[in-house]
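Our preliminary data section would be incomplete without showing what the modeling component actually yields. Below, a chain of 291 amino acids is followed by its predicted structure, encoded as tokens that our downstream tools consume directly.
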Amino acid sequence: MAFLPEFMKLGGEGGVIDKVMHGLTRPLFVHHETADCLMNLHDTRGVSIRIEKLNKFFGEKHVLKDINLEIFAGETFSIIGPSGTGKSVLLKHIVKLEEPDSGEIYIDDHPIFNPSTTEPPNYRYSMVFQSSALFNSLTVGENVGLWLREKRVCKELVIRQIIKEKLALVGLEGQERLQTAELSGGMKKRVAIARSLAMNPDLILYDEPTAELDPINTDELASTILNLKKNTKNTTVIVTHDLNFALYISDRMAMISGGTIEEVGTPAEFKASKNPVVKGFIYTTTKGIQQ
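Predicted structure:
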């Protein structure tokens, strides 16, 4: 993943790990929560995302070209397309790791790059990185509870309970003491998801979650994400080149090709698409197998 080194270097307050692993759009410490935690970690909601005429250049290369896209609150939305078409760059814009040259992104109808004078929406977001970005010196439980402990968000007993709950949600109940080196690739992905869930995000983003996974681990990851959908209300945005994975887990999808949105629709609509670019991607990805 292109910005993983930056993520690893910029730990600590104000760094990428602080902004993205558990993003907060308002100050953390408030005075109306429970005595055990400084914020409400029980309720989640989905946020809507609206992208309007977004453009991004890297030098002379026009990476994103007038992107218009709407993601509904609470849905699982996949952004698909071949490698190098701008998928991950678009994801970085949603979490403000990149700024557009023009255009705007709205979260719950509030602009994030040119904020208005009205009160911005209060939401939490987190991101699951392509390489999982776990800390090898920490156990599974320590990785999941890292941010909560560093920020002293909850009392220790509550943090331990949160770690147990989130590991159970991803099928790793009772695995707190495992070392990162003992984990398979699929288990690392699930630990990264549990870490991202530790603060009950309203928006969770995945960058190429099936990268380097074999078919069995990919299937387990898909089941994990689908099971999470039953237990949370958050909005999920997934960037992937894995078409079958996207077709299986998504409520809706968008395909990017050449920096532009080619098509938006449900998995069934994609399978029936007459768009030659979409048909070509499906044919190439499935090696001609009829869906």
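The first strand starts at residue 23 and ends at 24. The CA atoms of residues 145 and 159 lie 7 Å apart. Preliminary results of this kind motivate Aim 1 of the renewal.
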